[in-house]
């Protein structure tokens, strides 16, 4: 098995979407003073690699804590936006390049459990409107061979009423000979 971390590190001053809260991480307790270390974090729910709940863009839609935990993991594949006939059913789909609103009808038809990677804001809004959760700001998708299924894990914090959450997004690929 081969694990690929698809997450960006979270650090003070990292880039944030314009208008979102800036990320700040500071040491609040030290070993010297408290015999343990603890950090205080201030960040928006869409900082770094994150998942978006339908409530992010649609009032009254499902929030993170209302979604079953199995919605944040499962069999997935990296696909090309310009090849919708190659998108398999019953899998999460990830775009290594930006996918636009022109992909919305086919994705609605396939109803994947989740979609991620490069998504235009219009496409993300459309997917969330159909109850399809989205993962954004992923890295290293190019390390996953196209056309190969893998297991994806992107568990959020269980934030009550949460519209999104940073995640540790991970791909698990079977090595040649393990299949």
TrEMBL record:
InterPro entries tied to this protein: KFase/CYL, KFase_sf
Annotated GO MF terms: arylformamidase activity
GO BP of this protein: L-tryptophan catabolic process to kynurenine
Coiled-coil portions: none
Top-level taxon: Bacteria
Protein name: Cyclase family protein
Organism: Cohnella lubricantis
């Amino acid at each position: 098995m081969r694990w690929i971390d698809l997450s960006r590190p979270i650090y003070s001053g990292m880039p944030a979407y314009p208008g979102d809260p800036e990320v700040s991480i500071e040491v609040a307790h030290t070993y010297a003073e408290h015999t343990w270390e603890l950090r205080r974090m201030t960040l928006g729910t869409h900082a770094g690699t994150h998942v978006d709940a339908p409530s992010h863009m649609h009032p009254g839609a499902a929030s993170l804590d209302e979604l079953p935990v199995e919605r944040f993991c499962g069999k997935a594949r990296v696909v090309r936006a310009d090849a919708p006939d190659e998108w398999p059913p019953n899998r999460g789909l990830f775009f290594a390049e930006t996918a636009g609103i022109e992909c919305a009808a086919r994705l609605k038809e396939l109803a994947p459990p989740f979609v991620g990677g490069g998504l235009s804001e219009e496409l993300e809004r459309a997917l969330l409107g159909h109850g399809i959760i989205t993962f954004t700001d992923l890295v290293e998708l190019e390390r996953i061979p196209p056309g190969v299924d893998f297991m994806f894990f992107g568990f959020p914090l269980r934030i009550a009423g949460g519209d999104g959450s940073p995640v540790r997004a991970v791909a698990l690929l079977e090595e040649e000979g393990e299949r």
